[in-house]
Amino acid sequence: MKSKITLKKIAKEFDVSISTVSKALKDSHEISEEVKEKIQAFAKYYHYKPNSLALNLRNQKTKTIGVIIPQIVHHFFTKVISGIEQVANKNGYNVMICMSMDSYEKEVLNMDMLANGVVDGIIVSVAKETEEKENYSHFRDLIYNGIPLVMFDRVIDEIKCSKVLTNDLDGGYLATKHLINIGCKRIAILTTPDFVTVGNLRLEGYKNALENSLIPFDEDLVLKIDEDKNIEEQIKTLFSLKEPPDGIFGVNEIYAAYAMKYARKQGYDVPEDISILGFTDGLISQFSTPTLSTVAQHGNTMGQKAVELLLNEIEYQDTDYQHQTKVVETDLILRESTKKL
Fold this sequence. Notes:
16% strand, six-stranded parallel beta sheet, single chain
């Protein structure tokens, strides 16, 4: 049985560009007769038919881009959307937003809906359940059908597309190093399950900071939060240790806020007894009591860069477009939840 043939496969067979194949199949005078005859014969033998969806996207632009985010409760994602809309609207594009709720099935459904000629390209931050399942066929299908894709924040390395990342490794290092510099000796980290890439990178930065300061790594101070269970009950285990932490780094601001709430309920003074630092400078960080020191990951900038990459790919999708990866650096914002240097 002959496998499904695409422009990309034909181009690879003859060692030419996709654009050359496209022109040959359209009988363009720009391509030599010999090359045209070979490509046309090959395409006919394999019953090549142009992908109607891809053609629709190329020739009848919707001037709309789709965005799939895991959830809206994290302030970070609202900032990303804001950045996306600023650049998209400036370039005459509308934005359609979907939420996966960290569900693999909902992510697939959202992608199928958007890919059905509704948008010119898609920006996505991968759902936690997708990372856990390690099933990325829906992304491969999207790329196979010629629809531009950009991933941000939670990305899949093996998927060949443009990406926008936070420097999570350095962000984790920056947060932990600051807690060390203000005198914390036993620093706990509230992180995500192992399959969440951003949590792993921030944990790696935490470990690097400890090693750099000659502080032994203690597995008891690493708490991998299960969001389907009571978070305060999980945090309680850290305060039940024979030697409780004097500093806590939460890999997102929600974890850090939970830690601060629990510590204060137990009679701890924040920051005199325990310093707490989060990740993502959202409304929770700005308006908690005390206000929360945090690592800012600049969601607005990430959104702007993501849509710039996507619009470039939409414009040049008939060519051999080179995917790009942009890394956004982090900054430390110090507030009341950490002791002064």
